[in-house]
């Protein structure tokens, strides 16, 4: 496993420092002055000057790197630029080169070929990349599940059909964009049991309710189903949750739509059951941890 930051430290910085040290020396700075400007030792400057530090030719030959090094050398040598300003300029270039398809991203993908499996749209440091978004959802879901597992008494809220805590990506359109627990969460002899790690596309039921709520105005990104009890609804309402009833025997999307239209601020949906349908409460929230905390507060 190699992070892109390691490439920045091991290849980009030595290359840029070597180039910058050479440019500064050409502009008349002594070895000691170069060391002060770059914040490194004189022995390090000597190693750069004698080519004793390995550099990356692809980085050194990049026109943007060459242009920035020249600009920094001129500014630092003349005193028109401070070392902090130079550092900021280098940081900006690093972020640019880390973007999907650019130089540092290419070097990273070559060092870790498995990254190619995530498609050409993957961007190493893009916080909105599909991979990072999915990992954030799964991470949030794992934290929420730990809250439930450690919440004494949660097992008593698990319905006969099992419970599931789900969370979706910001632009979720179908169940494949919603992560949940394969096989659901069950009560095994009074113990909350999560059979496996969360995955995307494994919870059709709770995911469908969440997606239907989002499609009709809810800004929720996570949900859980628990057993239905009037007292639980009262407790939820008492702490500020708006509740709305829907009919699960009908088309879920249209039923949830009607419920949301009647109560736009609803964060709790419920149905009281029917022929072959177990009554359930669905708690919605902005993320898996919040939903888990809400449920824990009921115990």
Task: Walk me through the structure.
- By secondary structure, the chain is α+β, with helices and mostly antiparallel strands.
- It folds into two domains: 4-118, no CATH class; 130-296, L-fuculose-1-phosphate Aldolase (3-Layer(aba) Sandwich), CATH 3.40.225.10.
- The chain has twelve helices and nine strands.
- The strands form two sheets. Strands 5-2-1-6-9-8-7 form a seven-stranded mixed beta sheet, with helices on both faces.
- It is elongated.
- The protein starts with a helix and ends with a helix.
- Mean pLDDT is 88; it is low at 119-125.
- Residues 26-48 form the HTH cro/C1-type domain.
- Pfam families: HTH_3, ThiN.
- InterPro entries: Aldolase_II/adducin_N_sf (IPR036409), Cro/C1-type_HTH (IPR001387), Lambda_DNA-bd_dom_sf (IPR010982), ThiN (IPR019293).
List keywords for this structure.
DNA binding; ThiN; L-fuculose-1-phosphate Aldolase; 12 helices; alpha+beta
Name the overall outline.
elongated
Strand content: 5-15%
The fourth-level CATH homologous superfamily of the largest domain is Class II aldolase/adducin N-terminal domain
Distance between the termini: 42 Å
Can you identify the CATH class of the largest domain?
Answer: Alpha Beta
The run of helices and strands is: HHHHHHHHEEEEEHEHEHEEH
- Counting structural domains, the number is 2
Mean pLDDT across the residues is: 88
Give a nutshell description of this structure.
The chain has twelve helices and nine strands. 49% of the residues lie in helices and 12% in strands. The relative contact order is 0.09.
């Amino acid at each position: 496993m190699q992070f892109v930051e390691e490439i920045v430290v091991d290849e980009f910085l030595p290359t840029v420092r070597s180039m910058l040290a050479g440019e500064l020396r050409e502009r008349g700075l002594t070895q000691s002055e170069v060391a002060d400007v770059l914040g490194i030792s004189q022995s390090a400057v000597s190693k750069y000057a004698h080519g004793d530090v390995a550099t990356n030719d692809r980085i050194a030959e990049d026109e943007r790197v060459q242009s920035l090094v020249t600009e920094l050398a001129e500014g630092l040598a003349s005193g028109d630029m401070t070392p902090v300003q130079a550092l900021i300029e280098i940081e900006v270039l690093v972020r640019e080169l880390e973007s999907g398809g650019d130089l540092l991203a290419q070097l990273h993908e070559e060092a870790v070929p498995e990254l190619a499996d995530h498609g050409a749209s993957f961007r190493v440091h893009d916080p909105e990349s599909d991979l990072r978004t999915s990992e954030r959802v799964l991470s949030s879901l794992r934290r929420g599940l730990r809250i439930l597992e450690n919440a004494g008494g949660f097992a008593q809220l698990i319905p006969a059909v099992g419970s599931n805590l789900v969370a979706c990506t910001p632009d979720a359109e179908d169940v494949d964009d919603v992560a949940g627990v394969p096989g659901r969460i069950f009560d095994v002899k009074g113990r909350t049991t999560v059979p496996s790690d969360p995955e995307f596309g494994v919870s059709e039921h709770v995911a469908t309710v969440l997606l239907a709520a989002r499609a009709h105005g809810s800004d929720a990104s996570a949900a859980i189903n628990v057993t239905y009890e009037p007292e639980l609804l009262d407790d939820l309402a008492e702490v500020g949750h708006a509740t709305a009833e829907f009919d699960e025997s009908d088309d879920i999307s249209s039923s949830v739509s009607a419920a949301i239209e009647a109560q736009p601020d609803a964060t709790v949906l419920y149905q009281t059951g029917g022929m072959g349908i177990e009554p359930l409460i669905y708690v919605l929230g902005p993320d898996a941890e919040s939903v888990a905390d809400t449920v824990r507060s009921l115990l």
